[in-house]
Amino acid sequence: MDVTPTNGTTPAPPPAGTPAAGGTMISSDFQTFLRMMTTQLQNQDPLNPIDSADYAVQLATFSGVEQQARTNQILQTMQTQMGLAGLAQLSGWVGQEGRVGGPVRVDGKAVTVSYRPASGADRVVLSVNDANGTLIAREELEPDGSTFLWTPRNAQGQPLADGSYSLTVESYSGEDLLSTDEVEHYALIREIRLAEGAPVVVLPDGREVPADQVTAIRTPPQGG
């Protein structure tokens, strides 16, 4: 009889799969594991059989990987369910205005912005840059910090073209620059959706902002 000896070990079974396809891949990998074990039994050297302890180790290893994959599936399902619950809670935000950081969308209307100067500042300057990073305008603000209605204009007082602009406040103590900070602004919330399991708000320009980065919600002003 032609017997092909083996060294008593087999390669570890393939990974049990990702959470997205865990169930199918676990079943496939388990079948592969059984075929490997059957082949190993058929081809082992009868004079030097494989130690049963090796099989126990292989079974324990596969069982651990399988359990981890199933745990990942459960966690992913729970995360999705929690995300959907968060969407239901945030559904009332749609049609409201949220205060967020990041680029400000200019469309011919005044924009409500909010800023907080650095501690000890006695002078605050608002800087406006276009999407290319070019400085468009600078204007003095009250150093105590506030929310105000910003009229998008350039240094010559002309209305800014529609588009995306970056607003920052520079805090000074005398002539010393203390900090440069991003300005928050109110933007209409068009939609709430899940992104990688977490709720995000969708703004009119399509930008997505994590819901936990929205610092305030208000009803849009009449005629706004």
TrEMBL record:
One of its GO terms (biological process) is bacterial-type flagellum organization. Residues 108-174 form the FlgD/Vpr Ig-like domain. Residues 1-10 have a biased composition (Low complexity). Residues 1-23 are annotated as: Disordered. It comes from the Bacteria. It holds the Pfam family FlgD. Keywords: Bacterial flagellum biogenesis, Cell projection, Cilium, Flagellum. Belongs to the FlgD family. Required for flagellar hook formation. May act as a scaffolding protein. This is Basal-body rod modification protein FlgD. It comes from Aliigemmobacter aestuarii. The gene is flgD.
